[in-house]
Specification:
Blueprint: E1 7-11, E2 19-23, H1 24-33, H2 52-64
Antiparallel strand pairs: 1-2
The protein binds iron/sulfur cluster.
Iron/sulfur cluster is lined by residues 35-36, 39, 41-42, 51, 53-54, 71-73, 75-76.
Length: 92
């Protein structure tokens, strides 16, 4: 299988192995692809109002040293100013 980008080792910020293997393309796009960052439920600095799904996903990632490039859920609610196009009939 051909990979897009390079596979490299990076320092692990959380408990677990000291280094993680990542794909440079996925690592660079992770914040842009993760819709939680554009969701009005996402408040990681205010845990009393933060999305429990996002927090559980973060805890799973931290505990298991797993990184998700794309996160979304059915409750996604765009932050003010985030535009969402209606293209639902052409998507699988
Ligand atoms: S509601 Fe869904 S998209 Fe929004 S922060 Fe929570 S998990 Fe992410």
């Amino acid at each position: 299988m051909q990979h897009v980008g390079k596979i490299i080792r990076i320092k692990n910020r959380f408990p677990g192995p000291p280094t993680l293997v990542v794909n440079t393309v996925g690592e660079g796009l992770r914040k842009h692809l993760n819709l939680c960052f554009s969701c009005s439920c996402f408040h990681p600095d205010q845990l009393d109002v933060h999305c429990p799904i996002a927090q559980q996903t973060f805890e799973f990632s931290k505990t298991n040293s797993v990184s998700f490039a794309l996160v979304r859920c059915a409750a996604f609610t765009p932050k003010p100013g985030v535009e969402v196009s209606d293209n639902s009939e052409s998507q699988g």
